[in-house]
C-alpha cells in the first residue's frame, strides 16, 4: 500500500469509515494512566514510568487447532465478503505458547552478553551495565551457557562460552570492566555469535544480547550491514536482541539488527532502567518453549498474497513462508497477511487457504506439527459483512496497519515533510480510537482494547510533538522502539506510577 497517502490500502476491509474523524475517547491521557493501565517501554520518553514485566493475555476465539502444547489460530478480519469485485482482506495467523508449569521445564540458555565499553559509556552507564550483567549471571543455572564480550575500538572476549557453574568467577571479571576507546559494534556482535556457536544446540535458547550507547564507527556500520548480520545469524538458530542506551546510538541500525535477528529492541533513555530491561530480557530467555518454526501458508488460486505486515516473509506464487525463531510461554505471536480475493457468487463459500506449522518443542524435545484452514463466504448484503466481522482479528490488523503508517511517518519527518508526517500520525489516532470505541460499544475483543488504547495514545502524542526539532532525536528513538514493539509483539511493558509517586 502507498503509505505516503493519508488513505490506507485497507480502506475496504478495515475501514469504510476510516476517513471520517472519529470522536476521541473522553478520558484524558493522564486519568487513563493513573488507573494502572500498562504502557510499553517506548512511552518512557513521554511519561515518567516504572519498568515491569507483563505478557499480554489473549483469548483465542475462532477456529483454534490445538497441538499438545502450541495453539494455532487462523482467522480473517472479514469472514464474509461482498460478491462482485475484488477486495482486500486480512488473514491473521496466531501462535500461542503453552505455560511452563515448573522451573525444570525450561530449556537451557546459551547466551552471549555483548557490552559496549567505549569511552562514551563512562560513569553511570558502565556502572549500571556491570550491575545488569551481574544480576543476569546470578539468575543462570549450572546447565546454562554464558559468555561476556566487550567492544570498544576492537572486540575482546572477557569470558569465553562456558557453563555457568562458577558464577562468582564470571561476576568478578564483569566487575573489572571499564570504559575506553571507540565503538566496533559489528565486531562485538560477530564475536558474541562466535561464542554462542561453541555450544549451539536446537535444544537450547541461543541468543546474543547487545548493549550500546553510541554509533558504530569502526568496521561495518550501516543499518543494512547489521541487518544482514542478524538475518544470517537467524539462519543458524541464533537470535539477537538490542538495547539502545541514551540518545547517541543509531536506532535504525539497532532496530533493524534486532528485527532481522528475531529478537527484541529497546530504547532505554536512563541508565537506571538498564537493570530492569536486562532482567526482563532474561525472563524471555528463560521462558522459551518452542524454536525453529516453519510457518507455511498456501492460498487458493483465487486469492493473491500481497504482503505480510511488519515481517520479511518469503512469498512465491500462492505460497507464503514466515520466519520465526522462538515462542515464549503464554506468548501470543501473530502475523497479518494482506490478501486480494477474487469474489464468488452470493452464498458461495471458498476455502481461502491452509496454514501448516512445524516447530521444535523444547520441553519434549520433539518436532511437532499442526495445521488449520480458513474459509470465506460471499454475500451481496453489505450489512452482513459488518455483522460477521471478527472484531479481534480486525483490531489486531488495524494495529499492524497503523504501525506501518507510523514507519512511513518517521521517514516523512526525516525528509522534512512534517505536515504529512503529522497527518499520518493523526490518522492513526483517529482510526485506532474508532476501532477501540467500536469494540467497547459491542463488548467484544476485550483482550485487544488495551493495545488499541496504547497505540492510539502514542500516535496522538507523537503527532503533537512531531514539529519539535529539539525533541526529535529522542522521539525518533521512541518511534523506532514502538514499531519494534508492535511488529514483534514484544512482551515488556511499563507502568505509570500512581499519583503519589514522584
From TrEMBL:
Residues in VWFA domain copies: 110-289
Biased composition (Basic and acidic residues): 492-502
SMART domains xrefs: VWA
Renumbered residue ranges of the record's region Disordered: 1-25, 483-502
PANTHER family the UniProt entry points to: CALCIUM-ACTIVATED CHLORIDE CHANNEL REGULATOR, ZINC FINGER (C3HC4-TYPE RING FINGER) FAMILY PROTEIN
Protein name: von Willebrand factor type A domain protein
Organism (species): Stieleria varia
Amino acid at each position: 500500500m502507498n503509505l505516503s497517502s493519508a488513505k490506507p490500502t485497507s480502506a475496504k476491509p478495515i475501514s469504510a469509515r476510516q476517513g471520517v474523524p472519529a470522536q476521541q475517547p473522553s478520558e484524558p491521557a493522564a486519568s487513563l494512566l493513573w488507573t494502572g493501565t500498562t504502557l510499553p517501554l517506548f512511552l518512557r520518553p513521554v511519561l515518567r514510568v516504572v519498568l515491569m514485566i507483563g505478557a499480554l493475555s489473549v483469548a483465542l476465539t475462532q477456529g483454534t487447532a490445538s497441538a499438545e502444547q502450541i495453539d494455532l489460530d487462523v482467522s480473517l478480519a472479514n469472514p464474509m465478503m461482498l460478491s462482485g469485485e475484488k477486495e482486500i482482506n486480512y488473514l491473521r495467523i496466531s501462535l500461542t505458547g503453552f505455560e511452563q508449569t515448573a522451573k525444570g521445564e525450561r530449556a537451557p540458555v546459551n547466551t552471549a552478553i555483548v557490552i559496549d565499553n567505549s569511552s562514551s559509556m563512562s560513569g553511570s552507564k558502565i556502572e549500571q551495565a556491570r550491575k545488569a550483567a551481574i544480576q543476569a549471571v546470578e539468575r543462570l543455572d549450572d546447565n546454562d551457557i554464558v559468555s561476556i564480550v566487550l567492544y570498544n575500538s576492537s572486540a575482546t572476549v572477557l569470558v569465553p562460552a562456558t557453563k555457568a557453574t562458577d558464577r562468582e568467577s564470571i561476576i568478578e571479571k564483569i566487575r573489572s570492566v571499564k570504559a575506553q576507546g571507540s565503538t566496533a559494534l559489528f565486531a562485538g556482535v560477530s564475536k558474541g555469535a562466535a561464542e554462542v556457536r561453541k555450544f549451539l544446540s536446537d535444544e537450547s535458547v541461543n541468543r546474543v544480547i547487545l548493549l550500546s550507547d553510541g554509533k558504530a564507527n569502526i568496521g561495518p556500520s550501516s543499518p543494512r550491514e547489521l541487518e544482514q548480520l542478524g538475518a544470517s545469524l537467524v539462519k543458524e538458530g541464533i537470535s539477537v536482541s538490542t538495547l539502545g542506551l541514551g540518545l547517541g546510538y543509531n536506532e535504525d541500525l539497532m532496530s533493524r539488527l534486532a528485527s532481522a535477528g528475531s529478537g527484541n529492541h529497546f530504547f532505554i533513555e536512563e541508565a537506571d532502567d538498564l537493570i530492569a530491561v536486562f532482567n526482563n530480557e532474561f525472563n524471555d530467555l528463560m521462558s522459551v518453549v518452542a524454536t525453529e518454526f516453519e510457518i507455511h501458508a498456501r492460498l487458493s488460486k483465487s486469492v493473491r498474497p500481497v504482503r505480510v505486515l511488519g515481517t520479511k516473509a518469503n512469498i512465491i506464487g500462492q505460497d507464503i513462508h514466515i520466519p520465526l525463531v522462538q515462542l515464549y510461554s503464554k506468548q501470543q505471536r501473530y502475523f497479518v497477511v494482506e490478501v486480494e480475493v477474487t469474489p464468488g457468487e452470493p452464498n458461495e463459500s471458498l476455502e481461502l487457504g491452509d496454514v501448516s506449522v512445524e516447530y521444535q518443542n523444547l520441553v519434549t524435545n520433539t518436532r511437532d506439527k499442526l495445521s488449520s484452514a480458513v474459509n470465506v463466504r460471499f454475500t451481496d448484503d453489505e450489512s452482513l459483512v459488518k455483522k460477521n466481522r471478527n472484531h479481534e482479528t480486525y483490531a489486531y490488523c488495524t494495529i499492524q496497519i497503523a504501525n506501518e503508517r507510523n514507519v512511513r511517518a518517521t521517514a516523512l519527518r526525516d525528509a522534512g515533510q512534517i505536515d504529512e508526517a503529522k497527518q499520518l500520525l493523526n490518522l492513526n489516532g483517529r482510526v485506532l480510537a474508532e476501532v477501540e470505541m467500536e469494540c467497547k460499544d459491542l463488548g467484544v475483543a476485550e483482550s485487544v482494547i488495551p493495545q488499541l488504547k496504547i497505540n492510539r495514545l502514542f500516535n496522538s502524542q507523537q503527532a503533537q510533538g512531531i514539529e519539535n526539532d529539539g525533541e526529535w532525536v529522542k522521539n525518533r528513538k521512541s518511534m523506532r522502539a514502538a514499531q519494534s514493539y508492535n511488529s514483534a509483539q514484544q512482551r515488556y511493558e511499563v507502568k505509570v506510577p500512581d499519583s503519589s509517586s514522584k
